[in-house]
Amino acid sequence: MIEGIELRRLRLADIGLIEQVERRAYPTPWSRTMFAGEIAKPTSRCFGAFDVDRLAGYVIVSRYVDQWHVMNVAVDEPYRRRGLAEMLLGDLFVATRLDGTRGYTLEVRVSNHGAIRLYERLGFVPTGTRRMYYTDNREDALIMWRDTEPS
């Protein structure tokens, strides 16, 4: 746990804070409607890391049949490289470990070596590539998978 950081479920009232972090984190940010849809969806889990009233980072995952799809992970600049993304994903793994799913999948830019290393440390392994996945620059995405209980 990082001192002063509180993890909790995201609410619709947090969308303004989420959008601020998202715009600083990504060249092609999600829309307000995308966030609202995931937060309201019963098959999604959306966790935020708060430093008092400031949103430091978040993870958004959605369940599809027997797996969780990590849709979005973002950490605001002042909080990066302090273990916050690892803490958010670790909390997700604990919260979902007994729900009968096979595991977790995600896509990550092939150029995002730091994120790929983080995901590998957390038990994700590369399983394929989505060609020209990202709309802003047509970059490929690496598909990664993590079993519920990694070996």
Structure overview:
With 151 residues, the chain is of the alpha+beta class. The protein has a single domain (5-147), classed as Gcn5-related N-acetyltransferase (GNAT) (Aminopeptidase, 3-Layer(aba) Sandwich), CATH 3.40.630. Helix content is 28%, strand content 35%. It has helices spanning 15-25, 32-40, 84-96, 113-121; strands at residues 5-9, 44-51, 54-64, 67-75, 103-109, 125-130, 141-147. The chain has a seven-stranded mixed beta sheet, with helices on both faces. The two termini are 24 Å apart.
Summarize the structure.
By secondary structure, this protein is of the alpha+beta class. It has 4 helices and 7 strands, in the order βααβββαβαββ. It has one domain: Aminopeptidase (3-Layer(aba) Sandwich).
* CATH architecture label: 3-Layer(aba) Sandwich
Number of domains: 1
Query: What is the mean pLDDT?
Result: 93
Beta strand %: 35-45%
**For the largest beta sheet, what order do the strands appear in spatially?**
1-2-3-4-5-7-6
Distance between the termini: 24 Å
| Secondary-structure-derived class | alpha+beta
- Principal-axis shape equals globular
Number of helices: 4
Q: What do we call the CATH homologous superfamily?
A: Gcn5-related N-acetyltransferase (GNAT)
CATH topology: Aminopeptidase
Q: What kind of assembly state do the chains in view correspond to?
A: single chain
Count of DSSP strands:
7
Please state the CA-atom Rg, rounded to the nearest Å.
15 Å
Please identify the top-level CATH class.
Alpha Beta
Main beta sheet: strand number and arrangement?
7 strands, mixed
- The portion of residues assigned to helices is 25-40%
SSE order in H/E notation? EHHEEEHEHEE
List unreliable stretches of 5+ residues: none
